[in-house]
Design goal:
354 residues, alpha/beta, DNA-binding, homodimer, 12 helices, 434 Repressor (Amino-terminal Domain), 3 domains, Rossmann fold
Amino acid sequence: MSIVSPGRRRITLSDVARGCDVSRATVSLVLRGSPLVHSETRARVEAELKRQGYVYHRGAANLRRNVSTSVALVINDLSNPFFAEFAGGVDEALAAAGYVTLLGSTGESTERQRAVLASLLEHDPAGIILSPAEGSDGTQLRTLVGARTPVLVFNRQLDHDDRHGAWDFLALDNVRGAFLATEHLLARGHRRIAFFGGHRDSSSCRQRRDGYRAALAAAGIEAEPQWLVECAPTRLEAARQVGALFVRDPAPTAAVCYNDAVALGLIAGLTTRGRRAGDDFAVVGFDDIPEASVSAPPLTTIAVDPRARGRQAAELILQRLREPDAPARTTVAAVQLQVRASSDAPRSHTGDNA
Amino acid sequence: MSIVSPGRRRITLSDVARGCDVSRATVSLVLRGSPLVHSETRARVEAELKRQGYVYHRGAANLRRNVSTSVALVINDLSNPFFAEFAGGVDEALAAAGYVTLLGSTGESTERQRAVLASLLEHDPAGIILSPAEGSDGTQLRTLVGARTPVLVFNRQLDHDDRHGAWDFLALDNVRGAFLATEHLLARGHRRIAFFGGHRDSSSCRQRRDGYRAALAAAGIEAEPQWLVECAPTRLEAARQVGALFVRDPAPTAAVCYNDAVALGLIAGLTTRGRRAGDDFAVVGFDDIPEASVSAPPLTTIAVDPRARGRQAAELILQRLREPDAPARTTVAAVQLQVRASSDAPRSHTGDNA
DNA sequence: CTGAAAGCGCTTACAG
DNA sequence: CTGAAAGCGCTTACAG
């Protein structure tokens, strides 16, 4: 004879059925709002459900019905405000559609990404929204995920194409964003414009560089090799690399940055070197993270609206669940220039007359 | 005769068992690492698991075993960097312990909180980490959640105590934080120090005001009523309320702010009024959000380390799962003063000689 | 060491 | 309109 702590045992359909003298089937029909149940019976069952504090066990129901009401969201890390906003948008749209969000973080490690995906897959998500860790391989991911679970890839292209047909892809318009940023600096009179930060092997960096080059080309300028400075996309690394911009004369008077973190690092590095961003050097960022609007000087940047991108990603995976057999699609999300006084000094202020 | 798309059907234990001529029981024992299985049989089964691309269905297993491997995390919103960091810490620690995080956002609405909790409970979380929406009622939450699922409350006290015995509570040391902030301004020579922002009916605001008053009292100062200015804890509202600080002469020369958002709003509002934070008015914040270090001027504030708090919250709920019957506990997390040049001008700079 | 059988909490044809 | 029965994918005593 075992003693069960009060309230510890789960209340099931059977308990409720017993409590109001109907079958489990009838209670189930009431729960699912079936019109088959007599309204008086329904009322009795509903009273009993409430009386016993019944909680629906969606997992059991999903098992029986062979459906899933969760979507896995795998991102780099919530400490990055870009992904935090993105995740907020995903969760908002998924919750509105009746899905629950399963969270996973890779910390930009493909090894952790493997482990996180394997663990999440065991929870049977209906689909996966994946912002891949840098260096993720499409073929490997396909082996891990299989063909049963649709994946929406966000932000970063996978390294290898996939024999089974590509996954859906939500891309930022990196080319156009960098084009707009560069065009803005050109319009303010700059001619020697650097592209600062990021790694050449990241697809988003290559695309942003392409947009940058295209804007320069449209103005009849060819990017000089020393204007292209690589560094890890963090504030600290960017601050360390600032010197590379000024090794040769004439040095650039402005920089399009790979992202806002790099731009903030550049601003800090300029200060260290006795220069003032927005005063004698122009800086434009990419992403429009929350810090961009309160930095000193405020940062002109490319707004990506990560929260809206999150909602969009959720809509795309939900649509895929509705049409599992439609061909894979790439969606390119628009970006826009967010001008703020005054990280983007005009050339006249930089004391440059070359 | 229905045609199944290749790879759409789930591979189950039965498929694997059939594929290598053993019973489902044996496959299950292999999966769970039982020493009962002959090593040769084990090898055969493992090869077949891999060959068929088997994915464990943890939901089915958990149903049978009556356990859960998920924890629900309910917060205000991931757009708030404080909660994003907190969530990152929670997820990190839960993942390390083999749990998956179910995410839910309230947007500070108790109505949405009800709906989100009801939905998450249907997914049978082992426990819930809840940062309650403002105005959450403990009695109502108890009715909703029941006695089966342990809850760790974070950051904000619930409105009513609970007859069933309180839930675990992870609190920030708000009193001490505000005390440290106020003491710092006193040490810099200020005597007329305001407490700016927050709502009196929020428990964290009351506690921070208590710490502020205690520090003033220790210096023989009593807070004047007009030094206590309420406003919603957002940048925008704070900027709008700045005028209230200067309605009477002599006005305060410094302010302890309810949080960093309010502090940043105050800094902006001061600028609008032709004053300069850190130059002729001293500002101290609370939370140490990422913007605090890059604002102009950088913000001296109280560091709460939300990521560490997230890890701590996860540890506390995991411990509760291990000891369901231990008495409920309140844990107070330490906070510390983060001094940054130079939002915290000394009084001599404020031109105040009163 | 391996297999047959019962059961977790639910749903859904099917019969009445 | 209601109930008995089978089954979703797994686990676990129990028997052999």
